[in-house]
């Protein structure tokens, strides 16, 4: 029996492996593809980080390049992670998919593995699930009712404008991926229609520094989830949209509209070539800008309280207002030939047979530890802090998970030594 099985060889799972290896704990990392493959396989060509490079910290390794306040491209992230993997030798079994995890009758867990040579089983005392927060891409139920001549892809499949057929493109969703993909298509000269969701936005730079550097100095990335005003609803909101492209800048949907992008409210329904939208555009834009300005105000308060030398304060003023919100779109009439769905992902833990999930299928955990003995999670958004699920918080989260596991074995050794 293996002491610990880590399921998933992304940066989160490998970080736990790094700590377990240093502690001399027998373990294996089970990966359905290859280590950290998602960075190369699931990001578009012009992808960049939205967090500054100095946020990139993993166990025993951190960004030490020439541009700590810049934003690595997809290929640079892949190269940086390859450099980290060269610093240690995690016991990874590649092309090994875990299709079932269930508690064993005598304690621990039984895992069913699908490999190139068939199925096999593996027993372990601890299981760390590191498969990512929400692996299943979401598309709306009515997507199948749309005209089959319309090309439909999810944001995780998007690579560049040239992969889509000629014609206009509808991007649905304005979280980080949707907003950046809309910009990517816009810069490529494509006619873009954008269904705007309720995501907030943030200034890229404010008063001489990156906003995320200010927020880090203010301790927001270290504050535990339970300490946030508004509770669970507050921390489950969509992340703020911004970009690191070309050295970093704001994403201003109103400016896109000035430049010819067509904006709509929330997409409610559709059939054949007709789509219907809720009249929520004005409210969504106003909300995003209000959050933008409120973050600037919080930074102002921090600067006033600490006396940090900084540039003058400012506020965003809208450059465009929707006059008459369009609530329908005829795809054929507008020459829209493709849709990019950027409305998120949902969890899929059906392969885990354990009472560790809430009614929405999300893990019930405290800093990754569940009430099921030996079962833990890593790499979830807001698992402990805002930094969880990001490069900035992975090291701390992995250290906590690994320390909990190591302490379990240390306690066992102490009890054994005491004759208990």
Describe, in plain words, how this protein is organized in 3D.
The model is unreliable at 412-420 (pLDDT under 50). The strands form six sheets. Strands 1, 2, 5, 6, 7, 8 and 21 form a seven-stranded mixed β-sheet that branches. This protein has helices at residues 11-23, 38-41, 74-85, 176-187, 211-217, 231-235, 253-258, 281-306, 391-417, and strands at residues 2-7, 27-30, 57-58, 61-62, 92-93, 97-103, 109-115, 118-129, 136-137, 151-154, 168-172, 192-195, 205-206, 209-210, 262-264, 267-271, 274-277, 328-330, 336-341, 345-346, 375-377. It is of the alpha/beta class. The radius of gyration is 23 Å and the shape is globular. The protein has nine helices and 21 strands. The two termini are 22 Å apart. It is 27% helix and 21% strand. It folds into two domains: 2-135 and 347-417, FAD/NAD(P)-binding domain, CATH 3.50.50; 138-341, FAD/NAD(P)-binding domain (3-Layer(bba) Sandwich), CATH 3.50.50.60.
Topology:
Elements: E1 2-7, H1 11-23, E2 27-30, H2 38-41, E3 57-58, E4 61-62, H3 74-85, E5 92-93, E6 97-103, E7 109-115, E8 118-129, E9 136-137, E10 151-154, E11 168-172, H4 176-187, E12 192-195, E13 205-206, E14 209-210, H5 211-217, H6 231-235, H7 253-258, E15 262-264, E16 267-271, E17 274-277, H8 281-306, E18 328-330, E19 336-341, E20 345-346, E21 375-377, H9 391-417
Parallel strand pairs: 1-2, 1-8, 2-5, 8-21, 10-19, 11-12, 11-19, 12-15
Antiparallel strand pairs: 3-4, 6-7, 7-8, 9-20, 13-14, 16-17, 17-18
């Amino acid at each position: 029996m293996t002491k610990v099985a880590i399921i998933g060889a992304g940066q989160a799972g490998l970080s736990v492996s790094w700590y377990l290896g240093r502690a001399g704990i027998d373990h294996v990392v089970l990966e359905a593809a290859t280590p950290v493959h998602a960075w190369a396989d699931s990001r578009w060509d012009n992808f960049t980080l939205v967090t500054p490079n100095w946020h990139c910290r993993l166990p025993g390794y951190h960004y030490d390049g020439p541009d700590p306040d810049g934003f690595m491209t997809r290929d640079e992230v892949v190269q940086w992670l390859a450099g980290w993997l060269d610093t240690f030798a995690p016991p990874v079994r590649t092309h090994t998919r875990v299709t079932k995890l269930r508690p064993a009758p005598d304690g621990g867990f039984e895992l069913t593995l699908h490999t190139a040579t068939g199925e096999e089983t593996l027993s372990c005392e601890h299981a760390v699930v590191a498969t990512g927060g929400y692996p299943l891409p979401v598309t709306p139920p009515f997507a199948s009712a749309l005209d089959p001549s319309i090309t439909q892809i999810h944001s995780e499949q998007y690579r560049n404008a040239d992969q889509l057929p000629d014609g206009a493109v509808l991007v649905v969703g304005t979280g980080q991926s949707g907003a950046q993909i809309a910009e990517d298509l816009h810069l490529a000269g494509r006619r873009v229609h954008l269904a705007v969701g309720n995501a907030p936005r943030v200034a890229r730079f404010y008063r001489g520094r990156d906003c995320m550097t200010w927020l880090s100095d203010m301790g927001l990335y270290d504050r535990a989830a339970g300490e946030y005003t508004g509770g669970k609803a507050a921390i489950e909101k969509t992340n703020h949209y911004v970009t690191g492209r070309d050295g970093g800048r704001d994403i201003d949907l109103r400016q896109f509209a000035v430049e010819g992008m067509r904006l709509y409210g929330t997409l409610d329904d559709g059939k054949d070539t007709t789509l219907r939208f809720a009249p929520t555009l004005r409210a969504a834009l106003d909300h995003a800008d209000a959050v933008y300005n409120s973050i600037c105000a919080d930074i102002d308060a921090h600067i006033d309280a600490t006396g940090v030398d900084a540039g003058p304060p400012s506020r965003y003023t809208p450059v465009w207002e929707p006059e008459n919100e369009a609530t329908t779109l005829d795809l054929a009439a507008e020459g829209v030939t493709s849709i990019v769905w950027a409305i998120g992902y949902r969890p899929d833990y059906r392969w885990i047979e354990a009472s560790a999930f809430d009614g929405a299928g999300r893990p019930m955990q405290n800093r990754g530890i569940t009430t099921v003995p030996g079962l833990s999670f890593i790499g979830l958004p807001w698992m402990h802090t805002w930094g969880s699920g990001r490069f900035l918080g992975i090291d701390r989260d992995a250290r906590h998970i690994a320390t909990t596991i190591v302490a379990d074995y240390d306690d066992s050794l102490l009890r054994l030594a005491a004759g208990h």
